[in-house]
Inverse folding.
């Protein structure tokens, strides 16, 4: 999809000033610690696009996916679905809204009830969310959906344990699609699968997206996979947005030092290119979100960090070309990289 | 180049209730001093079991036959007591999850120095000094402090570094790494791969990297072996296999792997599912998923045979440059 087409897309989902903290009890006597999983999260998802969310462990990407769906209640901020704030909806109204917003999980087998047949699993959201639909109609829809995701009709009475990881993920996808949602949050949907099966599922998702006019939020730690599926990509680091850019721009011209480092670290399946890369990679690991660095959260690993980075949190700046970057020094860094 | 490990006709099977499953069949290959060999395959391909059997680490119902010679030493069938003389000294193995391989109740320094006390007869003090030096060598900051920590006090990347340090303490000739970076974050994975590259160079250790990730293979390996359904289906130099794969399964793996440097319109997956080891198809095990199959593939199993000049082998009847054919199709 070209950038021009996407710019005309109306925002389906708007996330404003989202914040989520968890309190962690260490012992009975001590005050619990506060882990800030997400802070100052602002972005929109446009109708018909795939927004990739990428980051390392502990960056808050899964929490963000769950906050969008109100599976986790955010502390502050809004999640606007076509203008309506989901955080303010009562549970009854939110249930209705769930027809439009669905999720696919990482571990396909663990996310399927082992005591239910495939047919029951796929029909389940329909039974709870659309009780008006008759049993015959429900079964017809289940069969249609099984065909769409590449499952054979005779599998309808089998149980999850009889399926491989890839097939189980197809069941999970069919279950997400059965209510004809508009948006699906895919949380690491292919990470647990073998390479050859991973490609099957990625292709299936893009076919289904076309066929059903879906909007996807695609969460993954794997940059190659994210690039492959996404129109725009949100880079998270320790609970904050580092950069939000169209996919091509992010991969060819990353602005945030963390985006640059992530790209440099991504393994490239091409021996000559891989050998030619002389990487001065990132040092250290992601700090604990319980006691994150002051100012810019990336500064402790950033090769360009200066005093200002420790003093002030960098704002998410709107730079040209529909790109957002949260770095005090991105202009200087760019000048340094292109100039020297 | 001298061979440090010579595997011939290695078979691994597991006894089930009233049947037997063959996880590895007729494996033949050699590992050269100082090289990095990547062993690539999907779950159930036999890639891990081959090397667990060499280390004497098969599950209780597992059985290995054939030969794995490290110099004059035959590892297959050696009693565990005797194996302990070599394990950790001449041949070492590290795993995906370092937490399960470290003893949670012992300080890091104890676990490391023990290796040297046992294998090299060092006294405690000398062993500790050497252990701390090795921790520093594998990139652990303030190694003296970390040596006093328990495994749970370290991050995942640090623990994997400790495992590597432990494996390298006795300067083994062979290091087997089973998916060593799979559980790590991307930036930490890159650090680890860098570390493997420099360590094999500095210590002259031959590295076997068992992985499903072709990006990892491209970055570290000299040669590779692709396994499918318990057998080696293609072997050769990394560049040859990446740029001119001759087994359709190798081609399939390459076409399934997204490249962060380019955005392909569509990936070309391998259709179908990996085989069940209990019911392997007749003929070539890959035939149900193969685009290049013909009659012979259903009747006979193709042997792994050398072809061309560059020490390549493949187990496929189809003759042709698959990548070129796929692109022109």
């Amino acid at each position: 999809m070209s950038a021009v087409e996407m710019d005309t897309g109306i925002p389906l989902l708007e996330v404003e000033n989202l914040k989520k903290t968890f309190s962690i009890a260490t012992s009975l006597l001590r005050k619990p610690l506060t882990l800030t999983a997400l802070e100052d999260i602002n972005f929109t998802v446009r109708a018909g696009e795939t927004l990739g969310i990428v980051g390392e462990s502990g960056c808050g990407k899964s929490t963000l996916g769950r906050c969008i769906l109100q599976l986790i209640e955010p502390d502050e901020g809004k999640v606007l679905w076509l203008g309506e704030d989901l955080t303010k909806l009562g549970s009854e109204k939110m249930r209705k809204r769930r027809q439009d917003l669905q999720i696919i999980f990482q571990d396909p087998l663990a996310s399927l009830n082992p005591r239910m047949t495939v047919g029951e699993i796929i029909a389940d959201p329909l039974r709870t969310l659309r009780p008006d639909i008759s049993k015959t109609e429900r079964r017809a829809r289940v069969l249609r959906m099984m065909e769409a995701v590449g499952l054979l009709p005779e599998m309808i009475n089998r149980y999850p344990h009889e399926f491989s990881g890839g097939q189980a993920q197809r069941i999970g996808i069919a279950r997400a699609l059965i209510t004809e949602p508009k948006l699906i949050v895919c949380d690491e949907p292919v990470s647990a699968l073998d390479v050859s099966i991973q490609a099957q599922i990625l292709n299936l998702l893009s076919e289904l997206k076309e066929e059903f006019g879906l909007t996807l939020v695609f969460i993954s730690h794997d940059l190659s996979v994210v690039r492959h599926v996404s129109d725009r990509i949100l880079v998270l680091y320790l609970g904050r947005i580092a950069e939000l850019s169209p996919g091509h721009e992010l991969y060819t011209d990353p602005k945030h030092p963390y985006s640059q480092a992530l790209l440099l670290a991504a393994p490239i399946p091409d021996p000559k290119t891989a050998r030619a890369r002389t990487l001065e990679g990132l040092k250290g690991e992601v700090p604990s979100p319980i006691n994150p660095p002051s100012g810019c959260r990336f500064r402790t690993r950033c090769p360009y960090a200066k005093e200002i980075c420790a003093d002030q949190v960098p704002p998410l700046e709107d730079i040209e070309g529909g790109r957002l970057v949260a770095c005090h020094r991105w202009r200087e860094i760019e000048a340094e990289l292109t100039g020297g | 180049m001298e061979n440090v490990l010579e595997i011939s006709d290695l078979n691994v099977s597991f006894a089930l209730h009233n049947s037997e499953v063959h996880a590895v069949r007729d494996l033949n290959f050699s590992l050269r001093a100082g090289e990095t060999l990547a062993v690539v395959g999907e779950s159930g391909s036999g890639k891990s079991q081959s090397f667990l059997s060499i280390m004497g680490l098969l599950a209780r119902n597992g059985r290995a036959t054939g030969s794995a010679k490290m110099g004059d030493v035959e590892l297959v069938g050696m009693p565990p007591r005797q194996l302990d003389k070599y394990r950790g000294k001449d041949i070492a193995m590290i795993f995906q999850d370092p937490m399960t391989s470290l003893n949670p109740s012992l300080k890091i320094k104890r676990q490391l120095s023990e290796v040297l006390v046992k294998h090299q007869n060092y006294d405690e003090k000398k062993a500790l000094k050497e252990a701390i030096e090795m921790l520093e060598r594998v990139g652990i900051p303030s190694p003296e402090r970390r040596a006093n920590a328990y495994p749970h006090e370290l991050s995942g990347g640090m623990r994997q570094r400790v495992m590597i340090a432990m494996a390298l303490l006795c300067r083994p000739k062979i290091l087997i790494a089973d998916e060593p970076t799979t559980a790590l974050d991307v930036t930490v994975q890159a650090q680890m791969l860098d570390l493997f590259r420099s360590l094999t160079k500095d210590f002259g250790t031959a590295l076997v990297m068992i992985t499903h990730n072709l990006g990892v293979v491209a970055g570290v390996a000299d040669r590779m072996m692709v396994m499918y359904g318990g057998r080696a289906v293609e072997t050769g130099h990394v560049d040859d296999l990446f740029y001119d794969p001759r087994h359709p399964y190798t081609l399939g793996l390459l076409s399934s792997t997204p490249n962060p440097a380019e955005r392909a319109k569509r990936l070309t997956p391998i259709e179908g599912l990996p085989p069940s080891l209990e019911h392997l198809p007749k003929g070539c095990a890959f035939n149900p998923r193969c685009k290049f199959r013909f009659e012979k593939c259903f009747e006979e199993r193709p042997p792994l045979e050398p072809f061309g000049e560059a020490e390549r082998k493949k187990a496929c009847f189809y003759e042709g440059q698959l990548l070129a054919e796929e692109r022109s199709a």
Q: What stands out?
A: The first strand of chain B starts at residue 3 and ends at 15. The mean pLDDT of chain B is 92. Chain B is about 35% helix and 25% strand. The two ends of chain B are 41 Å apart (CA to CA).
